[in-house]
Write a structure and sequence with these properties.
The protein is an alpha+beta fold and 597 residues long. The protein is built from 24 helices and 16 strands. The strands form four sheets. Strands 1-2-3-4-5 form a five-stranded antiparallel beta sheet. A five-stranded mixed beta sheet has the order 13-12-14-15-16. A four-stranded antiparallel beta sheet has the order 6-9-10-11, covered by helices on one side.
Amino acid sequence: MSLPEAFKDELRARVPLSDIIGKRMKLVRAGHEYKGCCPFHKEKTPSFTVNDQKGFYHCFGCGAHGDSIGFLMNHDNMSFMDAVEQLASLAGMQVPKSSPADEQRYKKQSGLYDLMEAAAKYFEQQLHDQKNKKILQYLKERGLSSDVIKSFRLGYAPDGDADDLQKSLLGAGFKTGDLLDAGLFKNSSRKQGDIYPFFRNRVIFPVLDVQGRVVAFGGRVLPAAYGGPPKNGTSGKDAPKYINSPESVIFHKGRGLYGLSRARKALGGGKVAVVVEGYMDVIALAQAGFKAPVAPLGTALTEEQIEALWKAMPEDNRTPILCFDGDAAGQRAAARAMERVLPILKPDHSVKFAFLPEEHDPDSLIKAEGRGAMERVLKNAIPLFDMIWQECARGRDMAQPEVKAGFRAALTRRARNISDLSVQKFFINEINQRIDGAFLARKTSTGAPAKKAYARGKPVTPGLNTPYRPDSVKAQPVKSRKSRQIDRMRVLLGLMISYPALYDEFGESLGMLPMADTEYDNIRQALINLLDTHNNLDYQAVKQHLSESGYGKILENIFNDALYLHAGFIKPGQTLELARQAWQDVWNIGFRGAKTA
């Protein structure tokens, strides 16, 4: 039985060849390929290569060569149809029957790829047409270079009154039905039989599948100054900022990722994937030198998209960074992503969470503060376990024992959502270790702390709504009055560094803060001088300036794991209101009327 090429292409796209071969022999990542000793002849030096992007294996020793179907036939001694059935099962696909209807359907699917490529070329030509130079100028004023515009194949869809696209595609031999099936045109409700272009007067972003084929488009509305619709136009509603192609037989919004096809080589070489919100964020990161930015396609991040990222990354480096806005909406989006990741976690597969300053997206942050600011955001990414801890702790008063018990139960419920039992077991073990280390103490028969036990102490509780996020370290033994005072100084310094916007309100208090240690006094003075002379700094810029001024070691002492056990709120990422409440509570508890020890 012959199978349509489009069906076999889809099999290769959904089930990477390295997954098939890697389950049967040892493969080692070598750049954008894998290498191993050939399974078809005896050899000591690896000459067998596997290339997922091209979808074939090749041995330079014996000449063995083929795709995933051929490998199963030759290695597992399968028949052609048995190999196809196995791959289709792994891909979640139905093997097409040998009927004229099925053959016609796959032929049509193959034709849609050609249609979308022709449309992409048309949109590119329109962007660079002299009559649309104002649109190209808009993109350049947004900071996009000519190379980036060309690399991402950006284009322009003319106003809806123009029928050039329709004429161009019909003239190339495509049918009206194809134009509708691909989502490039819609049926008119005004006149039966008429169609109109789906994208009109918008900047066009071609969306590619993992094999680099154009499968859809995103369209961004133009500002009114560049010919876009006026705000609250004739319909009384603003035009949506972005629209995306409807789903089709070659495009599924929840499965692909914008930028993944161009990021695959970098991911194979060990670069970390950065998942951002939209097209312009991906392009801005790429232009700034980040090698593997990707974005969902107008939807929240899905399980299939996370799985696709993991498959594109090396086995020992499957932890993409999910980057969100720092506002409340970004926090909610991160929480939803966390819930989607948990059931599909596997050994050595995870994610991290990074949060932007509230007033920025990646594009605006890079424009305002440069690549270094974005690097700092990614460097401060939160591991998945810490994200779960933060979410479960949000709004809990950890001074109450029953709340601590509820906290443990909430963490455990989240961990139970992990389908892989080995990962689930380690998560629950980590929960118990951290909870016990943070809250529980053992005593000897005399009532004194045991030699190896840790006392809980009394955590600083900065208000009922403050997230409580300790790290994986044990609580420290009870300290002297001076040590406790130094800890409180570290908390307040840490709060001011993490939330420099507090300086306008609490700068005078910072200057009056009694210091029990010369090093802390020095960094306090440096911080005051910095915030006196620079406005609107974020915490990453403050930390970088202090570190470059010779305070790196003392910063490590301030922002260390032990302090997070009772002051996890000093970590960036909370709201300014919570940080303000934390400052007031810590000041009132520890410093009102205090004297230097």
